């Protein structure tokens, strides 16, 4: 198995929804990874479409970078619709 | 339970004052019920304990296929055979979800499987008992999967994110296992011949105590519990879980019209729980040491499966390489 590649598996549960990460499988190639993912993650109609991606190709942000990456968003309240107060007579906008 | 007597390598709990800044921040996160994710800093003992526990849990799912595999070719009808195969495939799936969770901790699957095969890593004591008659398939689903559910429902709240998410998936699938087991027994008790009814009682007699042992030693003999609970890897004590299992199982036993092989089993209105007799812990420790009725056979079967499958895995790699080269050319 050491020579097999680790793939991350994404399942689209229904038409119109995004593919969502569900876990990983080992396989010799991508075709086999799809077969394994089908057996492992969709035995009970959990999906209508599968993606597999070699885990090594994913770049992830580090939890240590959480503050520099995401904090700047916190003081930008004017990016939310609720920041703007409009008179009641405008109605739903 | 599926993981029994998991070493933490820790003799005594550290107080918050004794911890390094990193350890304290980690413990405070656990205390605040924030899940630990693979890339977060964690104490090495936490990582190693989780690798031991999750690998043991995964090995149990994989070895757990063997007692049931014994009955696939002898299931009494095509319907029962299909159900049994679906259940066994689920167990393989559960093992794989758990190995994946374990790999997020930096452990290597091949190395951990090798530890199982050399006898170094443990798996649940329950799978070292033989499945002697068809009613055992019912009793395994009902009692063994039932005990597993009691444990795993609590583990959905375990502190390590990937382990918790694997448990949530597994719990969703597990209730089919218990219901199919109980239905097998109910069918035999309601529509079976006397000989078939006797088989049900025989299966319960043999599996009752081993199922109770699945929860592990009683709390005062569970040296690793304090640290595992502080880290919230474990969320409830062995004795609490065992009691919950007994309380929910006895009414089901009565509905079957069967009895437990325990003369001391009776409702205690004062405690609001069933009292039960003393568990023979020597037997449990002997089975864990490798001296149960089927330990040798189970490991030999696993080793043979890996060895016999070696050429398939090698061929798959060769085929993938050939296809890759052809596409490149």
UniProtKB/TrEMBL annotation, chain A:
Lineage top rank: taxon: Bacteria
InterPro entries noted in UniProt: PaaB (IPR009359), PaaB_sf (IPR038693)
GO MF assignments: phenylacetyl-CoA 1,2-epoxidase activity
Lipid metabolism listed as a keyword: no
Enzyme class, spelled out: oxidoreductase
EC number: 1.14.13.149
A Pfam match: PaaB
Alphabetical keyword list: Oxidoreductase
Keyword Protein biosynthesis listed: no
Stated name of the protein: 1,2-phenylacetyl-CoA epoxidase subunit B
Naturally occurring in which organism (per UniProt): Pseudomonas laurentiana
UniProtKB/TrEMBL annotation, chain B:
One Pfam family matching this protein: PaaA_PaaC
Single GO MF annotation: phenylacetyl-CoA 1,2-epoxidase activity
Record flagged with keyword S-adenosyl-L-methionine: no
Cellular component annotations (GO), alphabetically ordered: cytosol
Superkingdom in the source lineage: Bacteria
Coiled coil spans: none
Record's keyword terms, sorted: Oxidoreductase
Record EC number: 1.14.13.149
Keyword Oxidoreductase: yes
Gene Ontology process terms (BP): phenylacetate catabolic process
Protein name per UniProt: 1,2-phenylacetyl-CoA epoxidase subunit A
Organism, as annotated: Pseudomonas laurentiana
